[in-house]
Every structure is written in structure tokens, then in C-alpha cells.
TrEMBL record:
Keywords: Oxidoreductase. It is an enzyme of class 1 (oxidoreductase). Residues 5-177 form the Ketoreductase domain. Its EC number is 1.1.1.30. PROSITE patterns: ADH_SHORT (PS00061). The keyword Oxidoreductase applies. It comes from Propylenella binzhouense. One of its GO terms (biological process) is monocarboxylic acid metabolic process. This is 3-hydroxybutyrate dehydrogenase. The lineage of its organism: Bacteria, Pseudomonadati, Pseudomonadota, Alphaproteobacteria, Hyphomicrobiales. Belongs to the short-chain dehydrogenases/reductases (SDR) family.
Length: 260
């Protein structure tokens, strides 16, 4: 479905971003992976995806807190494979603290990476999408883009802002063949989350299943993690012709969290 199209996924060397990248590559997209680590493993990952799916794939280091890096990422993708037609803004960080204790530098970093980076990549990618006459922008928001939790001021603010940005871009591009949507996951099973389970077991003196149900998934009514592959599948759907009239939409994959 995406054969020959250029796709950029920010924050894509693990977890949700990697699942999305794999799903897009499976549909034939030439892929640009991104993180700020720039390790041999990052580059090997791009090589593996290219070999597995028979597509072009490269790794490009970019710090999503830096506007110039965001623009350079889009430019590097276009230079390698042609104008970016699929842009997935997935990069994100988190910090948890009371508002009065929240370090200002952490606020700035979270807003920069979780929100402002999407503005900078979209701004850089839209001209190429207009030229190509087709584009798909998918912003990975969160259930916290639709609701709030205490101690997550910067994350909640950024994800709410990301939904506002999504709607605005969708309206500006409504008469083109370019859509802009947001996926709002609940708790997703990723290596990072798996690592947190053991810590929570020790902290609460609970067994694994009890911690998952009563602590980590307290607000997720299904009491099941979202699988990262489901986020990838939703992204692929939003790139399909069937989703051509879906734009400006926050799409929840949260086990019923925001239905409460």
C-alpha cells in the first residue's frame, strides 16, 4: 500500500515507535528511523528492517528538543528517498512530580520533545506533501491528551496541545489529500513498561498480575495492556485510502480509559 513512499517515525528505535516503523515497512514504505542515541544498534536496526521488508531504511540521529534537528531529519529523509509523505510524531519523554516541585528544565524538555517537535517536523514536511499531492501525518498523543492525572503537568499539557495542533493542521490541509490525526493510547506493553512491573511488585509487595491489574492498569477498564502492534496497525490504517476522510481526529486505543 505504501510502496515507494517515504516515512519518518520519530523516536522509533524501541517500543511504540519501532512497532509503527515495522508496520509501515511491511506495507512497503521506505523508512527513516530516529533517536538521539546514534549507536551501532540503531544503525543495525535500520539494516534489519530493510532486509526483512525489502525497503530502503536508514537511521538518522536527531534531538527532537532542537528545532533545527527536527527540520534536518525531514530534509535527510527527503534526500535519501524523496519527499516525506508519511510523518509519525512519536518521540516523547515523561517526568512525574508535584507542580510545586516540578523542575522547570524538565517542563521545557517535555514541551519541546512531546509537542514543539511535532510542529517543527510538520512545518518541514508539509511542502513536500503538497508537492506530491498526498500525505499522512500521525501524531502519537495519549489518553492524557483527553484526560488528566496528577503529577504529570508537563506531559498532560503537551499531549493536550498535540491534539490542538492536530486539529489545526487538519483544517489547514482539509482541501488537499493530506490528513492529520492523533492516536491516543492508554498503557502500552513496551520494554520500558515491562521493566516497571518488577519495580512496582517490589514497591507494593504484590504479585505480577495483581500489580498489573490494581496498580498499572487501575484506570484501564479492560485490565489489559495495549499491544504496540495495535498502534502500528492503526497507523497503517490511517495511511490507507479507507481513512481518506478521517482527519483532525483523536483516536483512542486505551482499553476504555477515556470512556469512564
Amino acid at each position: 500500500m505504501l510502496r515507494g513512499k517515504t516515512a519518518v517515525v520519530t523516536g522509533s528505535t524501541s517500543g511504540i515507535g519501532l512497532a509503527i516503523a515495522e508496520a509501515l515497512a511491511a506495507e512497503g514504505a521506505n523508512l527513516v528511523l530516529n533517536s538521539f542515541t546514534d549507536s551501532a544498534e540503531d544503525r543495525a536496526l535500520a539494516d534489519r528492517i530493510a532486509a526483512t521488508h525489502g525497503v530502503g531504511a536508514i537511521y538518522c540521529r536527531a534531538d527532537m528538543a532542537r528545532p533545527e534537528d527536527c527540520a534536518s531529519l525531514v530534509a535527510a529523509a527527503a534526500a535519501a528517498f524523496g519527499p516525506v509523505q508519511v510523518l509519525v510524531n512519536n518521540a516523547g519523554v515523561q517526568h512525574v512530580a508535584r507542580i510545586e516541585d516540578f523542575p522547570p528544565e524538565r517542563w521545557d524538555a517535555i514541551i519541546a520533545i512531546n509537542l514543539s517537535s511535532a510542529f517543527h517536523t510538520i512545518r518541514a514536511a508539509v511542502p513536500g506533501m503538497r508537492e506530491a499531492g498526498w500525505g499522512r501525518i500521525v501524531n502519537i498523543a495519549s489518553a492524557h491528551g483527553l484526560t488528566a492525572s496528577p503529577f504529570k503537568a508537563a506531559y498532560v499539557a503537551a499531549k493536550h496541545g498535540l491534539l490542538g495542533l492536530t486539529k489545526t493542521v487538519a483544517l489547514e490541509l482539509a482541501e488537499t489529500q493530506i490528513t492529520c490525526n492523533a492516536i491516543c493510547p492508554g498503557y502500552v506493553r513496551t520494554p520500558l513498561v515491562e521493566g516497571q512491573i518488577a519495580d512496582q511488585m517490589k514497591a507494593h509487595d504484590m504479585g505480577r498480575e495483581e500489580v498489573i491489574r490494581e496498580v498499572m492498569l487501575e484506570r484501564q477498564p479492560t485490565k489489559q495492556f495495549v499491544e504496540a502492534s495495535a498502534i502500528g496497525a492503526m497507523t497503517v490504517f490511517l495511511c490507507s485510502d479507507a481513512a481518506a476522510q478521517i482527519t483532525g481526529a483523536p483516536l483512542s486505543i486505551d482499553g476504555g480509559w477515556t470512556a469512564l
